[in-house]
Amino acid sequence: DAKTTQPPSMDCAEGRAANLPCNHSTISGNEYVYWYRQIHSQGPQYIIHGLKNNETNEMASLIITEDRKSSTLILPHATLRDTAVYYCIVFSSNTGKLIFGQGTTLQVKP
Amino acid sequence: EAGVVQSPRYKIIEKKQPVAFWCNPISGHNTLYWYLQNLGQGPELLIRYENEEAVDDSQLPKDRFSAERLKGVDSTLKIQPAELGDSAVYLCASRKNVNTGELFFGEGSRLTVL
């Protein structure tokens, strides 16, 4: 299973875009990049996923580099409620495993 | 649509006592996961079920942990006897089919072993 590397923590000003990076240099061609977040005392919550193309939904945008070795999760207008731990995960439907790393703790400040 | 339901939400026990956690996944979700989460760490997979079959239990400490998913719906995770190091949050998650990595998590069961 491909591993991911994320910075342990980041700060972002409320109302500004939060850009959370993730390295996954050993990702295979059929593996997807998934992002989850976990707000304090809650279970992880799915945000978005992608294979090759950039993706956008109501929560966030996902930018995947052309070589697929890294990606960036973008929260366009961060609010205080976006303060959470964000996990970048490489998923393969072959194994069905979703392996969480340490994630990035995002602190949104007023 | 109801989410993944776990109980109890909190449990405090003395070491060497048994404890059990229950999970009811989202209706129609065939895959069920149990994760363990220590403070400040990401969730770690304990066991994964496809319907009633445990397809990945390699990380489950089988000397004291057991799990079952009778009839392929709800599931129970048991620890007997509990140790101090078992204090953690036990998370249950489900997904609809094998091709997706979109899991739906419950709120977790927080265990404190004294």
Brief description of this entry?
The complex is a heterodimer of chains A (110) and B (114). Chain A is mainly β and 110 residues long. Chain A has strands at residues 9-13, 18-23, 32-38, 45-50, 55-56, 61-64, 70-75, 84-91, 104-109.
Note the topology.
The complex is a heterodimer of chains A (110) and B (114).
Chain A: E1 9-13, E2 18-23, E3 32-38, E4 45-50, E5 55-56, E6 61-64, E7 70-75, E8 84-91, E9 104-109
Parallel strand pairs in A: 1-9
Antiparallel strand pairs in A: 2-7, 3-4, 3-8, 5-6, 6-7, 8-9
Chain B: E1 5-7, E2 10-13, E3 19-24, E4 31-37, E5 44-50, E6 53-56, E7 65-68, E8 75-79, E9 88-95, E10 104-105, E11 109-113
Parallel strand pairs in B: 2-11
Antiparallel strand pairs in B: 1-3, 3-8, 4-5, 4-9, 5-6, 7-8, 9-10, 9-11
Textual characterization of the structure:
The complex is a heterodimer of chains A (110) and B (114). By secondary structure, chain A is mainly beta. Chain A has no helices and 9 strands. Helix content of chain A is 0%, strand content 45%. In chain A, the strands form 2 sheets. Chain A has a 5-stranded mixed β-sheet, with no helix packed on it. Chain A has a 4-stranded antiparallel β-sheet with strand order 2-7-6-5, with no helix packed on it. In chain A, β3 (32-38) and β4 form a beta hairpin. Chain B is globular and about 40 Å long. Chain B has 114 residues and is mostly beta strands. Chain B is built from no helices and 11 strands. Classes of the chains: A mainly beta (110), B mainly beta (114). The A-B interface holds A 32, 34, 41-46, 49, 85, 87, 89, 91, 93, 96-103 and B 4, 31, 33, 35, 41-45, 48, 50, 55-56, 91, 93, 98-108.
